[in-house]
Design brief:
The chain is of the alpha/beta class. The protein has eleven helices and eight strands. It is globular. It binds 3-methyl-2-oxobutanoic acid (KIV).
């Protein structure tokens, strides 16, 4: 089974790693066969599984249910579970809710925010819960941002994000997810924190890992498709098309063929 120390080793060796969102057992098994390195039970399930417009309606009970479904079927990937909207408003709440998803089979929790989460990161880590912090475009704050927009587009905003990362690393953050930021920002964060792997989604080619929502990379998402998405299903045919597409994604990430320049935000900082 992939562990946090494997991810740290991959970073040192410059071996990129793959991550996909996953919410159910059959997809979790497909990802085990394809040897996807890490799985995220993302609160994007609010959209992909439940049909909502955002992640805000997702509950901790939903996260526990989907974490159980995924963890039963995949013994290969490191499993990260999101703590949903407002479920970590205090460090104490974060610990109570982290306990639920960890007991359901997660090996790490992900929370969204900045340096203000330092105390929470410290408490969780002290209690044996490794923490991934999601920065940049954080979908739980869509109503604060006023939409799903590229973040850290100026030098000042980039420096503020780097400062958040530093404080979170000091508090014990073990992993970052960086979403929708200039490619240069992804590179700067990955280079600055040599012990902390960084997973990007729309953060350029220089982060240590990449993540996509599985429905996006299988071409199942209708409507507006984000710039950072590549449809890996389009290249497949035959009986094992889904597993082949997942495998193609994994190989494209580790061989550094994905993301290509057209999937990234090229903004000079
Ligand atoms: O919930 C989710 O799927 C996520 C990814 C977009 C990184 O947080």
């Amino acid at each position: 089974m992939t562990s946090l120390s494997d991810l740290r080793r991959f970073k040192v060796e410059n071996r990129k790693f793959s991550c996909l969102t996953c919410y159910d057992s059959s997809m979790a098994k497909a990802m085990e066969v394809a040897k996807v390195d890490t799985i995220l039970i993302g609160d994007s399930l609010g959209m992909t599984m439940q049909g909502h417009d955002s992640t805000l309606p997702v509950t901790i009970e939903d996260m526990v249910y989907h974490t159980t479904c995924v963890s039963r079927a995949n013994r290969y990937a490191m499993i990260i579970a999101d703590l949903p909207f407002a479920s970590y408003a205090s460090p104490h709440d974060a610990l109570l809710n982290a306990k639920k998803v960890m007991q359901a089979g997660a090996q790490m929790v992900k929370i969204e925010g900045g340096a203000w989460l330092s105390e929470t990161v410290q408490l969780l880590t002290r209690h044996g819960v490794p923490v991934c912090v999601h920065l940049g475009l954080t979908p739980q704050s869509v109503n604060v941002f006023g939409g799903y927009k590229v973040q850290a587009k100026t030098r000042q905003a980039a420096d503020a994000l780097l400062d958040d990362c530093q404080q979170l690393v000091d508090a014990g953050a073990a992993l970052f997810v960086l979403e929708c930021v200039p490619a240069q920002m992804g590179k700067e964060v990955a280079e600055r924190f040599s012990q902390t792997p960084v997973i990007g989604i729309g953060a350029g080619a220089d982060t240590d890992g990449q993540v996509l929502v599985v429905q996006d990379m299988l071409g199942l998402t209708q409507g507006r498709i984000a710039r950072f998405v590549r449809n890996f299903m389009i290249e497949q045919s035959g009986a094992n098309a889904i597993i082949d597409a997942i495998q193609a994604y994994h190989h494209a990430v580790i061989e550094q063929q994905f993301p290509a320049i057209e999937h990234t935000f090229q903004i000079e900082l």
